[in-house]
Amino acid sequence: MRIVMLTLGTRGDVQPFVALGVRLQARGHSVRICTCQRFEQFITSRGLEYGYLDDRLIQFIESDTVKEIIGSPRAGILQWIRAAVKLLPQIKDMQRDMLDDQWAASEDAELLLYHPKALGGPHIAERLGIPAFAVPPFPGYVPTRDFPLFILGGRSLGGWFNRRSYAITRRGQAAVAGLINDFRQKLGLTRRPRFAIEPTELLGRPVPWMHPVSPHVLPRPEDWPEHAAMTGYWFLDADDGWAPPAELETFLAAGEPPVYVGFGSMVTCEPQEMARLVLGALARSGARGIVGRGWGGLQPETVPEGVCLVDDVPHDWLLPRCSAAVHHGGAGSTAASLRAGIPTLIVPHVADQPLWGRQVHELGAGPEALSKKQLSAEALAGRIEAALGSPEMAATAAELGERIRDEDGAAEAMAFIGRFGPEV
Predict the structure, then answer these.
(1) Residues in contact with 354: Cβ distance below 8 Å, sequence separation at least 6, in sequence order
(2) Taking the CB of residue 213, how many other CB atoms lie within 10 A of it?
(3) 161-185, pLDDT tens digit by residue?
(4) Do 303 and 286 meet the contact criterion of CB atoms below 8 Å apart?
(5) 211 and 281: one domain?
(6) Is the distance from CB of 23 to CB of 410 less than 8 angstroms?
(7) SS3 label, residue 307
């Protein structure tokens, strides 16, 4: 079967699709992943086919304009809304081209799996008359009484308000309704209402939603319909041929397990200041540290003894060798540090990250999340000390890691596809 996956964004938006694609290909299916071009080698190195999508969106995320918004400690939900309105015309121009790329990569598909950020997914499936599955890495589309839409802070507003909050997603999609309807007309499809721009049914059945999230981390809401699932995480382990840099191996062997600090794809308008803050926090806490440069380009002027800088090191290899992890709370980073069974401190920046910060703390697997507005060397050091100084937290994190390692989210996902689509 020809299976096409559509996704865009950062590595955390791409890697779960690669993990599932490898498993599907092992069952004899042909798998193509359409995403931003910078991930082409990552995809083809796993034996999967790459479908072209230009890099302009990621280049835009890395631009000074966006760095000033994401990197500012003062940015909150109101600032984000204002920025989104201001930047929408530029994003729409990119999305038009990306919709065309998604169609070109999908014309021969027999099954479609798509991240909701890949706006063409359900419309392409409708045009081709094939089954499709939505794959968001966080809950934000299927209403529930259990918790509100994550942009509202994650604390319960009461069952009725929690469920109603998901109407915000639908309202947000209305902002691109004109763009989507133009694309639908290109495909020979009828226009859809502005506030119902995305089809909820294909082939006479509801569109299924697969969330690659562990139910041990966020339990599946009981009021979800049967076509919505928490499958468990889809992990991609390091290639057998991967070897760590000699400098990193030497550092790990030279002392106690270090604290990993990295903010992944989060950009910052002041990378030198952020690097000084991180190094200051490690020095105050007395912990050895491994610092990931990430998209933020954390590159201190000098690197003190007891700290090692790294670029792209597979989390599944590195984190089990660490004593704790500090990161931005992206879905992929959160999955990796929890799987490693180490205390996790989240410094949320945007989107779903505050949700994971609260969830990790409430599970007892990490200290209370530290917001960007609170971030300082003193505050970060205090949280690191809390993560390293609590045997109860270490035991809880280790137990949770064991439960996650016992899951096979990709197998659950393939079984779910078989229930609501073709056997895979």
Answers:
(1) 150, 153, 154, 329, 348, 369, 371
(2) 27
(3) 999 999 888 887 888 899 999 999 9
(4) no
(5) no
(6) yes
(7) strand
